[in-house]
Specification:
Layout (H helix, E strand, L loop, with lengths): L8 E4 L4 H10 L8 E6 L8 H5 L3 H10 L4 E4 L12 E3 L18 E4 L7 H10 L5 H4 L14 H9 L1 E6 L9 H7 L3 E4 L17 E2 L7 H10 L1 H18 L2 H16 L1
Parallel strand pairs: 1-2, 2-3, 3-4, 5-6, 6-7, 7-8
Helix pairs in contact: 1-3
């Protein structure tokens, strides 16, 4: 039995059917003083878009008709889209082991180990064909996650052993790779994120961002391959920035701060 006096805040932590079944069962029992927080971590641009994609839009609507969220945190908070005033960006963070690639042997020049199921990724992998050491290190079309031979710690160590690591969007703009590359101390060359990221990496200071049409990707790559000191300096600054702003505790502090301000 849910007590109205117990909870100051209820967090709906995902857009999954079982999560909303649980929330639907308690929504009307919540104290009016309790804050309801919804974390939308899906790939869709619309708030709660995964409910439609996964086939439980009716349940989603019914649950929120009983008690709408006071605060919404959204991973895919698009830059070119207007959201209600109670919606805030909440991108991923880096929660993996901290591997130090600074000063280590860089055995690969350019790497992009990714599935080519998104047009921009396919375009990048086609572009990489026959360039640098991409063919030898596995940067090619036709990769599948199940067949990756680089996973876990091995994957992170391989990223750390790479001079230039590419990052381009997947199903959503926010990718794990966007945080993993700076975390291991390698240079990230990335497409520009289409989402709002508080305290994001800055071009030329913490990472390198190419044009949307990839027209400068080859030039940027060659530039930083030839300039070890400049490349490693940016990579080191990127890691410092990540450690200062983009660990799980920073997301938790931000979340609690927003909830507190909304309660005032």
């Amino acid at each position: 039995m849910l007590s109205r006096a117990v909870y100051d805040c209820v967090i709906i932590g995902s857009t999954k059917r079982d999560t909303f079944e649980a929330y639907d069962s308690i929504a009307e029992k919540l104290s009016k003083n309790a804050k309801v927080v919804y974390i939308d971590g899906g790939d869709e641009a619309e708030v709660g878009g995964d409910a439609s994609r996964l086939g439980f839009a009716e349940l989603y609507g019914r649950a929120f008709s009983k008690r709408a969220p006071d605060v919404i945190f959204k991973r895919e908070y698009l830059k070119n889209k207007n959201y209600p005033a109670n919606v805030y960006p909440l991108p991923l963070a880096y929660g993996g082991p901290l591997i130090d690639g600074a000063g280590g042997v860089k055995k690969y020049d350019v790497v992009f180990w990714a599935v080519d199921n998104i047009p921009v990724r396919a375009k990048v992998l086609d572009f990489c064909e026959g360039k640098w050491d991409c063919g030898e290190n596995g940067t090619s079309r036709g990769q599948t996650f199940k067949k990756y031979n680089r996973k876990g710690i091995k994957y992170l160590k391989e990223l750390a052993a790479s001079k230039v690591c590419y990052n381009f969007r997947g199903g959503g703009w926010d990718t794990l790779r966007y945080w993993e590359i700076p975390a291991v101390g390698s240079l990230m060359v990335s497409g520009k994120p289409g989402i709002v990221i508080p305290d994001d990496f800055e071009h030329g200071k913490h990472a390198v961002f190419c044009k949307d049409d990839l027209s400068d990707l080859e030039g940027l790559t060659n530039y930083y391959l030839k300039r070890d000191k400049e490349r490693e300096c940016i990579a080191a600054e990127g890691k410092k920035h990540l450690l200062k702003y983009h660990l799980p505790r920073h997301r938790a502090e931000y979340l609690l701060d927003v909830i507190e301000k909304r309660a005032e």
